[in-house]
Amino acid sequence: MSPQEVADFLRHSRTATVGSIGPGGLPHLVAMWYGIIGNAVYIETKAKSQKAVNLRRDPRMVFMVEAGTSYDTLRGVALEGTAVIIEAADGQEYWDAAISVYERYTGPYTEQARPVLDFMMNKRIVVKLVPDRIRSWDHRKLGLDPIATSGSTARFIGAE
Fold first, then answer.
1. Angstrom distance (rounded) from CA 90 to CA 88
2. Spatial distance between the Cα atoms of 124 and 28, rounded to a whole number of angstroms
3. Which of 79, 94, 121, 141 pairs as cysteine with 63 (C-beta 3.0–4.6 A)?
4. Which residues lie across from 36 on neighbouring strands?
5. Is 117 in contact with 97 (CB distance < 8 Å)?
6. The whole model's pTM is what?
7. CA 21, CA 26: separation in Å to the nearest integer?
8. To 5 degrees, how large is the angle CA 18–CA 62–CA 151?
9. Cα separations (Å) of 102 from 3, 44, 106, 109?
10. Helix (H, G, I), strand (E, B), or coil: what is residue 76?
């Protein structure tokens, strides 16, 4: 994908898989909602969550968003880099990131929503990732004939 296609894909998607390195060295993967400010992605998480513990110990992080239900429609973006933990709830970047997440999943932020945002961010940190490496793929560009979505899981698509 081009840089603009990557930016559009991330802006239009809803859920990312965030990877950190668990205490035993295995990947720790979790689904996360996220915000975007400039060229950085942000997540908010409980300060004592496993991903927060992992990233404090080893800040390497992977952030992946994918889509598609058949081989010819698979596409995605993986961002790799070093996470920066923002713990200062009195800082502007902390609240800008919180508002970005809020707006992506709730709607436009107004000061009337501040109590909801305060509740959302209670005992939470913000994790910022400015990628060192961006990987992307878009099988729609392969020129394949359409492939029917089939198999034992096809009937469950959209049922969640």
1. 5
2. 19
3. 79
4. 41
5. no
6. 0.93
7. 6
8. 65
9. 25, 10, 6, 7
10. strand
